[in-house]
Amino acid sequence: MSPDTHRATAAAILPLVGGPDNVTSVAHCMTRLRIGLRDRALVQDEALKAVPAVLGVVDDDTYQIVLGPGAVARVTPEFEALVREAPPARTAPPARPATAGALLERGTALKEARKARNATPVKLLLRRIANIFVPLIPALIGCGIIAGLNGLLTNSGLLPAVVPALAAIASGFMSLIAVFVGYNTAKEFGGTPVLGGAVAAIIVFPGVAKIEAFGQHLAPGQGGVLGALAAALLAVYVERWCRTWVPQAVDNLVTPTLTVLLPGLVTLFGLMYLAGEVAGGIGWFADRLLATGGAFAGLVLGGLFLPLVMLGLHQALIPIHTTLIEHSGYTVLLPILAMAGAGQVGAAIAVYYRLPRNRSLRTTIKSALPAGFLGVGEPLIYGVSLPLGRPFVTACVGGAAGGAFVGLFNQLGAGFGSTAIGPSGWALFPLLDGPTGLGPAIAVYAGGLSVGYAVGFAATYFFGFTPQMLTDLNTDPGPSPTLTPPSPEPAPA
């Protein structure tokens, strides 16, 4: 798509979310444009869903518009530019819904019904933690792929002069990831970002090896991202405390000093050791879980991951993945969780063949399948399976079957994982690694994808539709889609 097309998409979206005066913040993840809103009632949901580039909407702590991978990274800066360039409002903002009934339907019902279910303290905390790690994903992907390429060159003996350079490029970010986590933690929780990064930097400083805590010398990097998150969070609270009593005349000197000093001491003589023990426990538990109950664990993890994606909570697993990568060099969980996307793809293909007369839905599937094969399942979730209801459940069945397949081979000793987080589907192949070598890892992962595709297809083809659904849906609805992606709550099966 051309830049003009991306700008046109942004221009189409802006008035439908209440105009620039209604936008308080703009951000994006891998597939969604995330907008902070002053007044949710000004958003025109159905009109947004009708914009050709929009694959779905999600009403959460921010209003999220699903645009798909690649497109969202290009539309977001255009949207931000339009918001910045907009002249000050000279007229009243768009009118609210004219009747109390419409207001209830478009505002209160959405906020009360959905957020009452989703805005629990635990879920809100998980989303905030996810906000810390989501900006790091591009670097994790890039460095992970470079690490995989470096592994191939090392094993093949090719280009030996390049290997050390690639190792440095791949490892540089991971060696300092604690600093980035600390910076983002302070930013997310309302502190000064650079102070959070400064406290977290203590963890990776080589000189900590001279410090003894709990009867043993610390190791640089001990505690990893978990320690960095905890240290920066403590720094935020210390900074807030300082702001309440430090006189303004000396605030610029005293507050930064105490914000780094006090959490720094706690980090060195407590958090690094404790976070290191937690990180080691996570690694041990993941290894034992798959070694002793791999098939069942894979079944559960693969089957439940799509609902997590649907709710946007899958990003909260990033700290666990990152900890496992720090612990063993790869995360064993990601290849299993990736099977959920395979089940989704299989289910979408079955829908395509079961509804040969529904040209609109088949067009949606054809446009969303490439992203689905690369592991981005949201376009298929919000554009296909979730509105239909039953195919969402059968897609989960396919993911469970693929997860059980991969988990079984972990249980049999052919364990492997991903050296980075972010992509899944076919895009995960370059990131695979394990003690048995790259070949077995690729073979098992490909087998899991095949099982997920096949079971997702079969379960959807034979059990994904009632006779009445087939009668209603297997028709040509004309140029406009019959189904529009709803909120992230599953339709009744």
Automatic annotation (TrEMBL):
Residues 7-89 form the PTS EIIB type-1 domain. Residues 474-493 are annotated as: Disordered. It comes from the Bacteria. The active site is at residue 29. The chain crosses the membrane at residues 129-149, 161-183, 190-209, 221-238, 250-275, 295-318, 330-353, 442-463. Residues 127-481 form the PTS EIIC type-1 domain. Keywords: Cell membrane, Kinase, Membrane, Phosphotransferase system, Sugar transport, Transferase, Transmembrane, Transmembrane helix, Transport. Residues 478-493 have a biased composition (Pro residues). It is found in: Cell membrane. This is Permease. The lineage of its organism: Bacteria, Bacillati, Actinomycetota, Actinomycetes, Kitasatosporales.
